[in-house]
TrEMBL record, chains A, B:
Taxonomic lineage from the root: Bacteria, Bacillati, Actinomycetota, Actinomycetes, Micromonosporales
Keyword Cell division among record annotations: no
Single GO term (MF): DNA binding
InterPro entries linked to this entry: HTH_LacI, LacI/GalR-like_sensor, Lambda_DNA-bd_dom_sf, Peripla_BP_I
Key words, A-Z: DNA-binding, Transcription, Transcription regulation
Highest taxon above the source species: Bacteria
Name this polypeptide is given: LacI family DNA-binding transcriptional regulator
DNA sequence: CGGTCTGCGGAAAGCGCTTTCCGCAGCCTA
DNA sequence: TAGGCTGCGGAAAGCGCTTTCCGCAGACCG
């Protein structure tokens, strides 16, 4: 109505009296000046403070905000406010479906609580993981969630725990998913039990010689799942010689080449367990390329039950983990309760989803 | 050596003289106090300022940082420093492989430039997209990258452009991927040409009746790709009646149900083009479930060439877009050059990758 | 031996916001 | 009509950091 800028075009002249040129963002002071109120009042209107403000002033402020397209500077707000708003998550790689699912759960709960989620990809690099902890701490996040396998690396574990503890000291909350060796609340999937169950499934189908395509040795997820398979083997009076466990990198291509090695070195194998679905998919691809029928000649099983498991041919037998729920629970813990309480641990179950890729061994 | 805390345990007593209790983060002032230097000097040491500082003081500061596990408050730094460090990205959904690939490219270049990437998922909700623009603006990011299809929605486009323009006014850089209707530099994939090429491929195999499983009507990506298919049809003297274009939601399940509808309504169809790979995979699944051989009875083609395309059976013929490179180029533009320059547009090519899912129509 | 540099540490002024505290009106009550 | 409330706006003090500017020494020169 009375503004010098009748249309919505960005006002060039007025911003930040210092300088004169409009470069640089519009500040609260600009808004206050234009609305002819104090910054205090402008702030109150904008943030919906409980303190009452007269209708007229309120309207003037809102008008000014609109005209100037004002957006508060989050850094300044973060500094001035006491409470933390964002939450940080460190995963190996969000674009990996495993983490995508977990992240979905984290995201949902975070959003429900009005929190902003900052996602960091460590790409399985411990050094980067350490850096990200520092970064998130610097960002003053309210909580840090660490998802994905831990490492068999004492020095690293000690260091990251020290950092996490320092973070907790300063009032932050830590929760972890699938890492039992850390500070903080934990959501632990039944990796070992899952390994046991899938091997059990294969032994019961009649297989005698199971081969395993494992992930990197340094990851606890690898060793946990492997331990379960070993246990099942023992229960059935079978051995799992080292020769029949090949380590790879949890990638599709790694699964393919490992299949080649495994079958070359141990031709007696009639069933392959890959410790994640990506590698299982790679195994399937290699077997198809080499005209080895699945499950006719060789059975294949994966781990995680990613969406792709039901799209490959044959559809993939695998171990299902409730990934989204795990994320949701980790975030719930991260956002609930005081910082000081005994460490909570929630365990989640694994179940076998039998599909087409597993069957009895060839007669 | 002379610190009161000989071991690495977190020092509880000293932080932030105000209060006495150690709750709350360690500040630069704490570090300075412990090192017996001024905050200015501490800051210089920590940030590796160009200004020389005597070796002894430097060592004392570093020691204090170590002892106190000090991490600078990023908000305070953001406020005090002039230059912006983070870069924002708005995508539909990072866990969608299409965006995962793009994000990988964005990430790489951002990291090369020492920038932190803030990723926001809009889940194809225009309102959320608007919110995120504000949020990123509030975070004072150096650049905003908008990836993923635009919307056929004039009001929305106008509003988001207004916001983006305001952001540019204040010195921010905007670049977009696959959206031609926006403010800012753009990386534009050859969506229309890709559509033309894939249809061309099918017509040349001898197909006469092509059906299309399209994405949501409101997305420009959908209409662009469709336009290319229409053009190819016209070039071959063929029509593409509305009946043979069914709209879905770019999801796997949407692809499956759309296949059912399409073949029910238009049994003459011998080739199906899905406008992304997820829907193509869904189509494949439906066809397999209904014992319709691919490509024997029906050919199927996708779009994007996501990794899964070579894992399904039969492997999927599709249109490849250099997604990672698109991300990298968008980020390069976002981080290069001054804010004031003519809008740059970079176009990237699409090529057909013929695999097993397409072949001649049944005789 | 006085004067001018130069080298380096510290004081202090912000960055943009929130929030406490103060004070001015206008109102009610006695 | 005086005194005390209450309601609401503004002044100002930080939040934790960076960075400019100043000043003190010691080095060097004439």
């Amino acid at each position: 109505m009375d503004g010098p800028e009748p249309d919505a075009g960005p006002p060039a002249g007025e911003a930040s009296a210092r300088g004169g040129i409009a470069r640089g963002a519009v500040t609260l002071a600009d808004v206050a000046r234009r609305a002819k109120v104090s910054p205090a009042t402008a702030s109150r209107v904008i943030n919906g403070s409980t303190k009452p403000v007269a209708e007229e002033l309120r309207a003037r402020v809102l008008r000014a905000v609109e005209d100037l397209r004002y957006v508060p500077n989050a850094h300044a707000q973060g500094l001035a406010r006491s409470h933390r708003i964002a939450v940080g998550v460190i995963v190996h790689d969000v674009s990996d479906p495993y983490f995508a699912e977990i992240t979905r759960g984290l995201q949902r709960v975070a959003t429900e609580h009005g929190r902003l989620l900052v996602i960091c990809n460590s790409y399985r690099d411990p050094a980067r993981e350490l850096e990200y902890v520092e970064l998130l701490r610097a960002q003053q996040v309210a909580a840090i969630v660490l998802a994905g396998s831990g490492y068999h690396d004492v020095a690293f574990t000690k260091e990251i725990n020290a950092k996490l503890r320092a973070y907790q000291q300063s009032g932050g909350h830590v929760s972890v998913i699938g890492r039992h060796e850390h500070v903080g609340d934990a959501v632990l999937p039944a990796n070992e039990e899952g390994g046991r169950l899938i091997a059990e499934h294969l032994y019961e189908l009649g297989h005698k010689h199971i081969g395993v395509i494992a992930g990197p040795k340094v990851l606890t997820t690898t060793t946990d799942r492997l331990a379960g398979i070993r246990r099942a083997a023992k229960d059935h009076g079978r051995a799992l010689p080292a020769r029949r466990v090949v380590h790879s990198d949890f990638s599709r291509d790694g699964g393919a080449t490992s299949t080649a090695h495994l079958l070359h070195d141990s031709p007696e194998v009639t069933a392959i367990v890959a410790l994640n679905d990506s590698m299982a998919v790679g195994a399937l691809a290699w077997l198809r390329a080499h005209k080895i029928s699945v499950p006719g000649q060789v059975s294949v099983a994966g781990f995680d039950d990613m969406p792709v498991a039901s799209d490959v041919t044959p559809t993939l037998t695998t171990v299902r983990l409730p990934l989204t729920e795990m994320g949701a629970r980790a975030m719930s813990m991260a956002l609930s309760g005081s910082a000081i309480h005994p460490t909570r641990i929630e365990r989640v179950e694994a179940i076998v989803v039998a599909r087409e890729s597993s069957g009895p061994p060839p007669a």
